User: What shape does this take?
Amino acid sequence: MSFVRVSFQVNGSRVSVFVEPRTTLLDVLRKKLGLTGAKKGCDMGNCGACTVLVNGKSRLSCLTFAVQVDGMEITTVEGLSRGDSLDALQESFIRNDALQCGFCTPGQIMSAKFLLSVNPHPTLEEIKRYMAGNLCRCGAYPKIFRAIEEASRGVLSEAR
Amino acid sequence: MKLVKTRVEFEGRFRDEYVPVEEEEVEAWASDERLNVVGKPVSRVDAKSKVTGSAKYTHDVYPPGVLYGKFVRSPYSHAKVKSVNIQNALETPGVVAIYTKHNAHTLPFEAAKKFFGEEVNYQGEEVAFVVAEEEEALSDAIEKIDVEYEPLPAFLNIEEPTNQVTRKVYERGSVEKGFKEADVVIEERFDTQATLHNCMETHGCVVWWEGDTLIVHTSTQAIFYVRKELSEELGIPEKNIRVICSFMGGGFGSKFGAGRYTLFAAMVSRALSRAVRVVLDRVEENLVTGNRSQTVQKIRIGAKKDGTLTAIEHFALVNIGVDGWTADVGGPTKSLYRCENVRVEIVGVKTNLVSNTAFRAPGYVEGNFALECALDELAQKLGIDPLELRLRNYAEKDQLLNLPYSSKGLKQAYEKGARLIRWFDEPRVVRIGDKIRAKGMASVIWFGGGGPPAYSQVKLNSDGSVNVITATQDIGTGTKTALAQIAAEELSIPIEKVQVTLGDTITELYSPGSGGSQTLASVGPAVRSAARDVKTQLLELASQLFDAPLGSLTLENGVIKKKTGEKLATLEEIAKRLGNFVIIGKGARGPNKDEYALNTFAAQFAEIEVDTQTGKIKLVKFVSVHDSGRVVNPLVFSSQIEGGVIQGLGYALTEGRLVDNSGAVLNPNLADYLIPCSEDIGEIIAEWVEVQDPYVNNIGSKGIGEPPIIGVAPAIANALKAATGVRARALPLTPERVYFSINSLLETSKTNATYI
Assistant: This one.
């Protein structure tokens, strides 16, 4: 078993870890860094619960090897808030009750975050299509759509 | 203290409980009572921790030095385990121990002998257990374990007349007489598939020992059931087991027991003196944690020309897997409509598949599909509107217990639902090119009155903040929030002042499992009683502090006043004066009133669009109107309805365990087993009727967890019939099936796989 050193930024802080080449970014985040917001729902890229941003783009961290993100910038759900100050999407998810058990929620929010970064005012159909990779067994979908729509309106007003 | 006998129901099974009653039961809120927190759309009290990623689920528990454990599982559904060779695997770097049928008996508990038999009886049954320092080493080692199997034939077909292990017959009146009196008789057969829970958080546990005490973090719907099971299996007292589940990633009926993974983890942890973590992967989750049962049902209904039901006969074969249970598939048939002559026969059949488990309204979802589709056929045969037919057979009382309902708002739900879906106001079938839009409906009956025992304590701190303590779980249903609302209401304080602690047996405040739509109706009244106790104590103290007669004092908006209106002190001021002498209120769920039947109801309407070129069904709109008594939190309540409807949509259209003729599951993952995703969701209108129920319990609430899933599949199937004239007789309604049936083609599958 060989280990390699990988260095990258997580939520604005530099990290440097020794990992096996086969170790996923998800496992590094959860086990080495204690950032357990991203969840392991399937470990096969089917459920979306592990979604994080890599250099601003949404990625399934269970299908990403840690060595692939050397030198890159990772944002996890923990990086969206600063103390009491939450991201507009987080506020909107709370206000609209866009979650039930909450297990898929970090992944939903990170996917929505990326969606709004590339399409600041998506239509309902665009939201449904983009979010199709983030499964929610509790069925919070209708309120997730509403939360994203509401946050997107907030994004608009902030931009003005 | 006096002992009261009361009837308690769980998932359709009734039992008598003896309840010691200490205090006077708090009266239910009156219909005109002005409530400030209860009934308001309050945000979830734990939402912030969920959206920031700080909520700690079982999966998120990694104690220092934890060992990882994983079972080696049989790829065969039925086989002899001839030998298990672990020699090569033991040398894998990181591996600490491997247990098989050859050495499991070395573990320091009798229960170890129950593992790893000479034969496996379903795919995924355990044959060995690997323990390693790193998770990655587990798969390395498992690859090197050499298991020699001798495959045996698998028993899979429940229609073969063997392996019938349970038979329950219910009869009232005489169906023979009833069918003789009928002007028309319809007879239908329906097949329903096994479906898999697929909770986003897979089953798992993290356990360790602190001296003689076993600490168990586990994703469960019932911390006390887990504790009891571990106590019995391990032979250690309950007092030495602490079960914790603070946040929980979904259960839907599949997480009531300790699970073999927890039992084995506890034994290995003891033997190795290390913490052990066993978290099932997604494939294991689909293979070994149970399912909703496959059924084959035959139903016969007799009726007069005017629609009056004269007889219903319902027969069902239920696939219970290797050692499961037979849910009450005949439940709706026995109770949903007024009918004097009813016969229900439910037969459980053992197969070489995993044991089934409860899954959101077990039995009722399957049985309601058959009953409500058959009723739709009857309506067409008689030329009566399907909703009108249901109204003509409205059951004013419970026909099993021969008791009045504590409340029943189904009629109002029908009316509201019909209005919202425009049942009578526009054509029910519209063709747009190759697509046809149509509507269908179904009715729902379920339980949800809750019952004892359930305990709570409410503590008033010296700063005026309040802790509500109870050992129930919040499995995502919003229990924590509803309980905070109830305590805040009773003490007339803002909800921000209330902190709810749950999910830990160390509080010893027993609460039932979070299932059967019983949580709020069981625990809510206990919390209200405990808060009332705090209030009573406060008023007693105030009476002495201010030398005012007790009867002259009230607590309003957090202020103790004389009934004349004179303000004496705020709740905070009194709490502060007490310093560390905190007030602790105790509350228990009182007995049920046995002179009433406690049930929930719903009217569900679907509008679908069928693409006749592809057979694909799209949900356009779904209206679900519920009678669940008082709604404590409309926001969270509507989330429950939407979630149930969406799970029902999966059951109706896409979900089904595909099994080949060797008994191997072909779709044990989320790529091939299709739970609904965002693109499948149409407009869902979650509604309810305000029904006052002063009898059900002191908060007037009934459950909402299960009712929303029950009528979804029949409402959609009835809409499909309206659209195409084709009666769907087997779920799920995949495009392939719909395409074949509307083109009158026989279903000719190219594989040997079936939905069972």
In short: The CA atoms of residues 477 and 657 of chain B lie 26 Å apart.
